């Protein structure tokens, strides 16, 4: 049985601990303490600071990993919340606070569900992963190395539907190099911003790939920086543009960069995938290109079907769908090829918003849903 009151209290405790990316130590302490209290058989904290709890069933089965990241985005300065973002107040049938939907609600539900499941064959692992908001899937790599899962459930919000795919994400930098000159004699220089403008126009008209499940690829301009900045009486000699590229299955760094380099307007523009380097709260440095692949599995895939049937068995009727944003599934499915699904409480539209909240009905149903998935995949009792 799911203890909904305990689930509510756990989520409140998680939300009350601020946990920006790289600052998750306090929330990980809450996670590991509750895992001990819930009776998890083994608990680890890896080198990046992610927590992993294991529940062991009957011998001879496979391993199912339930993953929820525990870092959150921040609070925009000057933007007023009606509800304290770190009080985790309950009003009506909602808990308000940063991370309730993205995605401490799923983490709490996964922990309670794993502790409640029984008679399954194999291993259930629950991970509270760090640093997802800035580098999707990078910290999850070490968790996967430790757990060696056969199947993965990503707990990002699906509205209790079952996602069997997700868009990826790449950060792309374009750089134009010009020649500096005094702004009183601009003809003696080569304005790098002007060199970049035809490239921006060409990219705006560039056709992108499409996928029947995930929709259209996206190329969104997010930043333009000239150098020197501020430009006091000088023609800019460098201009860098950043694009957020939302990826579809099958796209690779080579295919994405190659398509851009084929545009005549980019003949003199440097194009590259951005590199990321971030330090975890344990002091470990995470490095990698900011290219996080898209992924999808067919509805007929045995894991998708087993999870779907497990949800049906507890009375839920999920739609089959896909994530429009990027998740930690970029590593498990997109890189490692591990069968992966998404299932979680609340809705994508509630992530990162002012007065973020989660409906208690969604939260409680998700905990039951995770039990249903565990039983459907590992053969536990209902």
Number of helices: 9
Beta-strand percentage range:
25-35%
The major β-sheet equals: 6 strands, mixed
Give the class from helix and strand content and strand pairing.
alpha+beta
Quickly give the CATH architecture of the largest domain. 3-Layer(aba) Sandwich
* Spatial strand arrangement across the major sheet: 1-2-6-3-7-20
Mean pLDDT: 96
Helix content: 25-40%
Unreliable stretches: none
Describe the structure.
This protein is of the alpha+beta class. It is built from 9 helices and 21 strands. It folds into 2 domains: 249 residues, Aminopeptidase (3-Layer(aba) Sandwich); 111 residues, 2-Layer Sandwich (Alpha-Beta Plaits). 28% of the residues lie in helices and 28% in strands. Strand 1 and strand 2 form a beta hairpin.
Supply the key terms.
Aminopeptidase; 5-stranded antiparallel sheet; Alpha-Beta Plaits; 6-stranded mixed sheet; 382 residues; 9 helices; alpha+beta; 2 domains
